[in-house]
Amino acid sequence: MNIIVIGLSHKTATVEIRERVAFSPNLIEKPLHDLVALDDIIEGVIISTCNRVEIYATTHDIAGGIARIKRFLADHHHIPLETLEPHLYCYHSEAAIRHVFRVASSLDSMVVGEPQILGQIKTSYGYAAEYKSSGIILNRFLHKAFSVAKRVRTETKIASSAVSVAFAAVELAKKVLGDLSDKTVMLVGAGEMCELAAKHFLNSGAKGVMVTNRTFERAERLAEEFGGEAVHFEELFTHLHRADIVLSSTGAPHIIIGPKDVEDVVKRRRFKPMFFIDIAVPRDIDQKVDDVESAYLFTVDDLQEIVQANLAQRSIEAQKAEEIVDQEIGQFFKWLSSLEVTPTIVALRNRFDEIRRAELDKTCSNWKEMPPDAEKRLEALTSAIMNKLLHAPTAVLKQAGQGGRVDLYVDALRQLFELEAVPEAKEELELEED
Amino acid sequence: MTHLFFYLTLSFYLSATIAYFTCLFRTSSGLTLWASRLLTTGCITHILSTVHLANKAKHLPLTNMQESLSFFSLFIIAAFLIFERRYKVTTLGSFVTPLALVMMIGSSALHEELHQLPPILQSNWFWFHALLAFVSYAAFTIAFGVAVIYLIQRHFLKTKHFGSLFQRLPPLDTLDEISYRCLAVGFPLLTVAIISGAIWSEQASGSFWVWDPKQNWSLITWFIYAALLHGRLTIGWRGKRAAILSIIGFAVLLITFFGMKHSITW
After folding, report:
1. Nearest residue on chain B to A176, judged by CA atoms?
2. Residue B116: its pLDDT value, please?
3. Distance from first CA to last CA of chain A, Å, rounded?
4. Are B56 and B80 in contact (CB under 8 A)?
5. Residue A371, exposed/middle/buried by CB under 10 A (0-12, 13-18, 19+)?
6. CA of A113, closest CA in chain B: separation in Å?
7. Which residues are paired to B77 by β-bridges?
8. What's the CA dihedral at B114, B120, B125, B131 to 10 degrees?
9. SS3 call for B100
10. Do the bridges between strand A52-59 and strand A208-213 make them parallel or antiparallel, or are there none, so unpaired?
11. For strand A229-232 and strand A208-213, is the pairing parallel, antiparallel, or unpaired?
12. Is B87 on the interface with A (CB under 8 A)?
């Protein structure tokens, strides 16, 4: 049984193509059913995010399976295959395992270390489990991917530093102000970056929000969104002392907050530290504000520098993450291979047993005067012969399952004994805990 | 026996200092844990050493510079461990443990005899005064360490250099809070220590204040920390000014401790 991966991502396709191929989460049931209804596609999972669409499947026939899934993608979204195909990548066996482990660990993401992809894969897997398009192999596979992602997160620092300006601002604020849970944020103006940063601050526990804007209605609207209070622009300096964090992003062409203003404010706050972020261009806050004791001013450029440094740090951590992925691939692949052996042994045993029964029946039905315990004895005899015959090959196969010559033996056995297609391993495998 | 405990303490403090110093350059929860454990073990052996010494001499080991150094460093380490537990400020250890270590090394280098206590020292007021003084000194030493880190962090923030050291040092706010606590604990204790010292002085020499260098310098120390506390509570002195004053206060404290011998002692 092989695992195959077909898909496209931000690395191989622009957003115009990606949005045409995306699957809507509400309408995922039919595509999943269509996917596993394809010839020789046993299990299937569909992942669809804004940056990638991927299909994971199991099949016996790698080339055929891949081709069928490509056609499935093209047909389902009504795109000609020739248009779609150049953007698709496909992996099988070990490469497929590596790819999925990397994706789950955010190593393939636009921003390495981003946390969303893992949740997105978990959700997609949830659908596949719900609609029963995934089975033993993909279940185990994805559970393994989740635990690899967790290892990467905890054992490397790949996700620990801020790589967006808004996050960097929050991290810095924590360094200045400590715990943010009793701090107040003031938004001056209402740019998008401002809103985003405010959201991050609120997520980090900041309690109060004040919004001010030249247009009071706009301030009110924003204040409502954040559950804060709106302040008239003219009263900015009356209320400024109440803020621990000031985010400024107005469209004004001149300085709004100068060092003298801040000196007064800081004295009024009894020199409690105050954190200023100036996102506006041209700037709203005079650079000299940074010289004021207890006031700490940062511009977007300062934050960008932090982000750049952190990105560089992340690529070092990404190396460590790749090593973890390497280790885990080996383990999982061994398991996958061993899976082959068990159904093969089962099938072989079934075949022998069929033959044994057939001959036993033939003998018993043709024997006119069969002694009373003869059937029992014959049963015992034939079973014993069968078991003795099977013992050595079974042991060898199980051994080979660890070593890696499995495919060869299994293939040979299948051919030599004309074993039919292996039924899916129905035994309950313990799935690893996350 | 004392020697055994003493040298055990010294080696634990030495390894803890190295561990804490490494924490400045490497983040590792294992390292942090072990540094703390080493230091705690050292503190325990230090207490044992001090208790044993006290037992032998039948009084607190505070009669000469060798003993005083050891006593001082014990309280510094104990104070630090308490703050470390509460605020998780491992990197503060990198600044404080070297101080304690140097004091212990100094203590081991001195070879002063256990003096027979002169009668003037056999007053409970003396022990009370000395004990309180050392606890307040320990608090002010922590405040000193915190002030130094504060200035370093503030420098990083103002010059926008956010290297790995910056990441490892605690937030300004935490430093500020620790500093305030040290002040709030140390200052009242120092006040009572000075008063009880004066009472002891009266018992020993007949007058409360003899204007000897020790008493004078303790008064200067007291004024500096009084100003610091007052500034903090009223105007809200924080940040750079307060940090610098903490450092000056500590320097004066050291002068008081080292430089001045009681004019009424042996």
Report:
1. B172
2. 63
3. 24
4. no
5. exposed
6. 19
7. none
8. -20
9. helix
10. unpaired
11. parallel
12. no
Mean pLDDT score of chain B, rounded to an integer?
A: 85
Amino acid at B261: K
Q: Under 8 Å CB-to-CB from A179, ≥6 apart: which residues?
A: A205, B173
Chain B nearest C-alpha distance from A228 (Å):
24
Torsion over CA: A316, A318, A319, A320 (sign):
positive
- List the alpha helices (DSSP H) in B110-159: 124-159
CA-to-CA distance for A205 and A185, rounded, in angstroms?
Answer: 11
Residues A82-100 have pLDDT tens digits of: 999 999 999 998 899 999 9
Domain over A2-160 is classified CATH 3.30.460.30: yes
Question: How close is the nearest chain B Cα to the Cα of A175, in Å?
Answer: 4
Contact B176 A175 (CB under 8 A): no
CA atoms within 13 Å, Cβ hemisphere of A267: 5
Q: Which residue matches tokens 């806050």?
A: A285
CA dihedral sign of residues A5, A8, A10, A15: negative
Going from N- to C-terminal start, the domains of chain A cover: 2-160, 165-307, 334-417
What's at B237, amino acid-wise? Answer: W
DSSP SS3 for A424: coil
In DSSP terms, which residues pair with A248 in a beta bridge?
A: A188, A278
Q: How many CB atoms lie within 10 A of CB A423?
A: 10
Our measurement of the distance from residue A30's CA atom to the centroid of its chain's CA atoms, rounded to an integer in Å, reads 23
The answer to whether A50 is a known catalytic residue is: yes
CB A378 within 8 A of CB A309: no
The predicted structure's pLDDT at residue B136:
94
Closest partner CB to A270 (pick from B171, B173, B236): B236
What DSSP string runs through B177-215?
A: HHHHHHHHHHHHHHHHHHHHHHHHHHHHHS-S----HHH
For residue B214, what are its two tokens?
């020790």
CB contact under 8 A, A269 and B236: yes
Question: Is A404's pLDDT higher than 70?
Answer: no
Q: Given an 8 Å threshold on Cβ–Cβ distance, is B235 in contact with A270? A: yes
Q: Does B153 touch chain A (CB under 8 A)?
A: yes
Burial classification of residue A86, based on how many CB atoms lie within 10 Å of its CB (0-12 exposed, 13-18 middle, 19 or more buried): exposed
Closest chain A residue to the Cα of B150, Cα to Cα:
A176
Cα separation, A232 vs B211, in Å, equals 62
* Interface mutation target, options B155, B160, B166, B234, chain A, most CBs of A under 10 Å: B160
Integer Cα distance of A140 and A337 in angstroms: 13
What is the second-level CATH architecture of the domain A165-307?
3-Layer(aba) Sandwich (3.40)
Taking a C-beta distance cutoff of 8 angstroms, is the pair B20, B94 a contact?
A: yes
pLDDT at B113 over 80: no
Asked if B176 has any chain A CB less than 8 Å from its own CB, the reply is yes
Q: What is the pLDDT of residue A426?
A: 37
